[in-house]
Amino acid sequence: MALAAPALRRYLLLLAQEHLEFRLPEITSLLSLCGGQFNGEQEVHVNSPFWILNIPSEEMARGLMKRTVCAKSIFELWGHGRSAGELYASLKNYPTDKMLPYLQSDSTYKVHIHTFNKTLTQAQKIKKIDALEFLPFKGKVNLKNPEHIFWILEDYGMNPNDVPEEPIHLYFGRWIADGQRELIESYSVKKRHFIGNTSMDACLSFIMANHGRVKPNDIVYDPFVGTGGLLISSAHFGAYVCGTDIDYNTIHGLGKASRKNQKWRGPDENIRANLRQYGLEKYYLDALVADFSRPIWRKGMLFDAIITDPPYGIREAPRRMGSQKETVKSVERSTENHFFVSSSYHLSDIFFDLLKFGAEYLVMGGRLVYWLPIYRPEYTEEIIPRHPCLKLISNCEQLLSSHTSRRLITMEKVKEFKDQDENSELLDGQYMPYRGHNSFREKYFSGVTKRIAKEEKDNQK
Fold first, then answer.
1. Which residues have C-beta within 8 Å of that of residue 170, sequence separation ≥ 6?
2. Cα torsion for 172, 178, 182, 184, to the nearest 10°?
3. Which residues does the UniProt record annotate as the domain Ribosomal RNA large subunit methyltransferase K/L-like methyltransferase (predicted)?
4. Helix, strand, coil proportions of the chain in percent (round to 5)?
């Protein structure tokens, strides 16, 4: 006899109003990591800060909030409506037996009010709290350290220039847990010991780790590791991390510093020092100087996630090892005794190699998360690189300018890699649309030049 599925409970999620496209894939990935799933019946309006989710247990809701940087708080939803009357009717219909454990006479509580897109006076807040006197509260009010916290949340719409007199949605619920928004500040690149020109913003780093469903004891790899910013977020979640990069100076923490008013990097500026700064050194495996176009890993070496930000020619040029026959201009000096010959590494080739590597070296169910630069006037979904062993999970846009953006691509390994899959992308001309990525740098700076020229023309008027 099959066991009945656990009854779903309704929760209200309060989200931050940034990186809007990234929020749904993050929440969906984290729910699946906690053993749940996101279904089409969830009441989610993508741009709204309020989402109603059906989650099997409070434990799963807490697990979600231990990871998310896109959500602020989660509440057990007791009632909601489009007017105060609807909210009160909804609360009166909520099962009393589910309320009573939190309203006992020997307990303490407080009620907090949150409004979106409107500010209320203290008198208005007190009036709204007093209107809930029909609820069977038996405990004592404790504003400083209550056992239970209840929230009234009011939504006044998304338009700050047209704020309605009354809220368009009202919610009441029991606070369960807060998200991990404090990580954005505590891991800020501004405070980091070792940074480079392309160090990833802390919030996006944690979003990438969450999209990749990184979990404790995973092995996470970044093939374009740079200063290791993406390793830090994965290590914070308990994964063992490693990376490679073609730049000898960066891996060894040598050469010119990226910080203003600092000429050269110090003797202890390196990736390991970054992990040590956050108490994460025990999760650091190593970082190697290597050319990603020539994989160094033995067969059977498998990663749970590959999370990376490939260079796309704006602040860092894509490079790979060249031959001694190539022009002497490509010879670069890294240290007194270290030279290498570099040649151009087309963006289309980077993504081709990246997907092929992910298909071969990810565990089944492992995820590849990477940034893809886009020239927006020419963008279609057909230019997203594909591989038969990898399933596209999400595709989120971050604007760089009016004409360019980068898209965070998340893919999951769903099929074992076979030798015949190695060049499968080249079949039937499927590879040709990706060639457009090769001119991204020219298109990016062409747009910048045009914008500057337009601004200068406007200033002359």
1. 80, 81, 82, 83, 84, 86, 87, 152, 153, 154, 155
2. -80
3. 191-317
4. 35, 30, 40
The H or E element that residue 283 is part of is: none
Phi-psi region of 321 (alpha: psi -120 to 50; beta: other; left: phi over 0): beta
Dist CA 250 CA 334 (whole Å): 9
Query: What is the dihedral angle through the alpha carbons of 294, 295, 298, 303, rounded to the nearest 10 degrees?
Result: 180
CA atoms within 13 A of residue 289's CA, in its CB half-sphere: 12
- Which amino acid, 78? W
Give phi and psi for 273, each to the nearest 5: -65, -35
C-alpha 299/C-alpha 196 separation (Å) is 32
The CA–CA distances, whole Å, from 419 to 184, 360, 432 equal 42, 9, 22
Q: What is the pLDDT of residues 437-447, one digit of tens each?
A: 555 656 666 65
* Residue whose C-alpha is closest to residue 438's, from 343, 310, 335, 350: 350
Domains of the chain: 9-179 (3.30.2130.30), 184-317+342-425 (3.40.50.150)
**Distance separating alpha carbons of residues 11 and 174, to the nearest angstrom:** 9
Amino acid at 223: P
Q: What are the pLDDT digits (tens) for 271-300?
A: 999 999 999 999 999 999 999 888 889 888
Single-letter code of the amino acid located at 318: P
Q: What is the pLDDT of residues 143-153, one digit of tens each?
A: 999 999 999 99
